[in-house]
Design brief:
Elements: H1 2-7, H2 10-36, E1 42-44, H3 52-66, H4 88-99, H5 104-130, H6 134-146, H7 151-158, H8 178-184, H9 186-208, H10 211-227, H11 232-250, H12 255-266, H13 269-281, H14 283-291, H15 299-306, H16 308-323, H17 326-341, H18 357-379, H19 384-396, H20 399-413, H21 415-422, E2 423-425, H22 426-438, E3 444-446, H23 449-452, H24 455-459, E4 462-463, H25 474-486, H26 491-500, E5 503-509, H27 510-513, E6 526-531, E7 535-540
Parallel strand pairs: 3-4, 3-5
Antiparallel strand pairs: 1-2, 5-7, 6-7
Helix pairs in contact: 2-5, 2-6, 2-20, 3-4, 3-5, 4-5, 5-6, 5-9, 6-18, 9-10, 9-12, 10-12, 10-13, 11-12, 11-17, 16-18, 17-18
């Protein structure tokens, strides 16, 4: 590690920090614009077009920690559950919000900004371990931070509202692209940073046969699996594939590096055991996992999602194979194994795209220099072909990233049309804060699913329905909510529904009214306990 650090000059670190600052500034612009563009009497929610329902889940965990809970629960379902979820990342973010007196959304983005800087540093260390030339390292970092595919070109023709998942990956899967990851969520940024750190430390352990590196990798992997257990197949699949390749090249089993791999398998066992125990003990967590189906789109959507990067990657692979630098073989293994995992028969396939963009971007950077060297040898260093090639990359490689970035600006600018997702009326926020201040943590709130997604983020209280995977028996509850709100009949049956699910309060806003004619004011089993011009809250008697 000392040798690696000695390779990196002070000017390089300044460049890395400036790149991190640039990413923080660019990704903050849509959020700041969304805040400033909020309509009068509305509150900006911080949601954007990437997985908007998930953002409120993250905010709800920060809210729980702010309220003094170090062990969390799933606030998006009404069934009895254990308080068993220990999430180190959201604990730290919640403490940050509590001690600095930050609102949940601001704490979220402070954590996201800090995570971006950490990622830039760790990624540059990894790049520097593999790449000797300083200029190459800098260009590769820029490609890694900003490059994308051809979704900007194909998405308008391929997007189908009836099947939104069959769309180029760089337009909607945050994990599949580094810029999208850094833009979307701090915990994803931190988890992909840990993936890179584990791989860097393991490569150091393999190269120098020092157990301090594999122990460090094991600790990093323990934290990774605790925060984001979806990344386990990537870490162990890639490292196992690399050990296999090294053994084939050596024509013998590489026991010296295999021992480090065994150590990496044992150190994270507490995280594995923790998830096994809470999975076995809590029906709600099992149901959450059963419903969390994240299948990959067709392979063409990933090919389009990486676009020209895959073309450059081919030349980068050729350069690696010709140079015979075994450390760089790791990039090929990482790419091949991760690409295969995208269609591995497991329910969270899309999650396994996390980190795949990193080997693609690094090899694309190597391929870029391979092509420039070829053009230079054939036409001269100042050839117009080289200038045209570089301009082509500058214009087209980040195009989808800018499209994703600009899409939020468009949505926020048209806030009057899209306020239902991105903005809450101040009256609704006041109602949710009333729930926070007057309800016990065990009391359940009944509302429309859409509104139930927001209530935990602002109140830290349980809802009957509110999030796809995390609401137990979601499909059944969706049907029940439509039946409940659609008319003002079957009074006794609806009362019994509330009793059967242990509902304590009913949240009634304009969004519930849109589902039908149900009138809670006329029900003798409901008592109004809160009212403003936006929301009425009733206690179930």
């Amino acid at each position: 590690m000392r040798e690696l650090l000695s390779r990196i000059k002070k000017k390089e670190w300044i460049f890395v920090l400036l790149m991190g600052l640039l990413v923080v500034a660019i990704t903050a612009v849509p959020y700041l614009y969304g805040y400033l563009a909020r309509p009068d009497n509305y509150v900006y929610t911080g949601l954007h077009h990437f997985a908007p329902g998930d953002t409120n889940v993250y905010l709800s965990m920060i809210e729980q920690v702010k309220q003094g809970h170090n062990v969390l629960i799933n606030l998006y379902t009404s069934e009895p559950q254990l308080r068993s979820q220990i999430s180190p990342f959201w604990l730290v973010t919640g403490y940050l919000a509590r001690f600095l007196n930050l609102n949940n959304l601001l704490a979220f983005h402070v954590a996201r900004s800090l995570a971006i800087f950490v990622f830039a540093v760790v990624a540059y260390l990894f790049i520097s371990f593999l790449i000797a030339r300083i200029n190459h390292r800098k260009v590769i970092l820029v490609i890694l931070l900003f490059s994308s595919g051809l979704g900007w070109l194909f998405s308008p023709f391929l997007f189908d509202p009836q099947n939104p998942y069959e769309n180029p990956s760089d337009m909607w899967i945050p994990e599949s692209n580094t810029f999208n990851t850094l833009f979307h969520s701090p915990h994803m940024t931190f988890s992909v940073t840990l993936i890179v750190l584990v791989f860097l430390l393991m490569l150091l352990a393999f190269k120098y046969n020092k157990y301090r590196y594999s122990i460090g990798a094991g600790i990093a992997c323990l934290l990774l699996l605790w925060i984001h257990p979806f990344n386990g197949p990537t870490v162990y699949g890639v490292l196992g594939g690399y050990i296999l390749l090294m053994s084939i090249c050596a024509k013998k089993i590489k026991w010296d590096i295999f021992r480090h791999f065994v150590l990496l398998c044992f150190i994270p066992l507490p995280a594995v055991l923790y998830y096994y125990l809470i999975y076995q003990a809590d029906w709600v967590i099992r149901k959450w996992n059963e419903q969390n189906i994240l299948t990959s789109p067709s392979v063409w959507m990933y090919i389009i999602g990486y676009g020209f990067l895959l073309v450059l990657l081919v030349f980068g692979m050729r350069k690696i194979i010709k140079s015979r630098i075994k450390d760089q073989y790791f990039l090929i293994v990482w790419f091949v194994v991760s690409a295969m995992l995208l269609y591995f028969p497991i329910y969270f396939q899309r999650r396994l795209s996390e980190g795949l963009h990193i080997p693609i971007a690094i090899m694309a950077g190597l391929g870029t220099y391979y092509i420039i060297t070829f053009l230079s040898n054939k036409f001269g260093r100042r050839s117009n072909y080289i200038i045209a090639f570089v301009l082509f990359l500058i214009i087209f490689l980040p195009m989808s990233s800018f499209q994703v970035w600009g899409q939020d600006l468009y949505l926020y600018r048209n806030a009057q049309r899209h306020h239902e997702i991105y903005y809450l009326h101040e009256g609704e926020v006041a109602a949710m804060h009333w729930l926070r201040d007057n309800l016990e943590i065990t009391e359940v709130i009944f509302s429309r699913k859409y509104k139930g997604n927001y209530i935990p983020a602002y109140s830290g209280r349980l809802v009957w329905i509110g999030h796809g995977p995390q609401t137990a028996d979601l499909e059944k509850k969706v049907d029940l909510q439509e039946w409940f709100w659609q008319d003002d009949q079957a009074t006794e049956e609806k009362y019994q529904l509330l009793l059967d699910y242990g509902v304590d309060y009913l949240y009634y806003s304009s969004y519930e009214k849109k589902l039908g004619d149900y009138n809670p004011a006329t029900k003798d089993y409901l008592e109004q306990v809160f009212s403003n011009d936006q929301v009425e809250i009733y206690k179930v008697l």
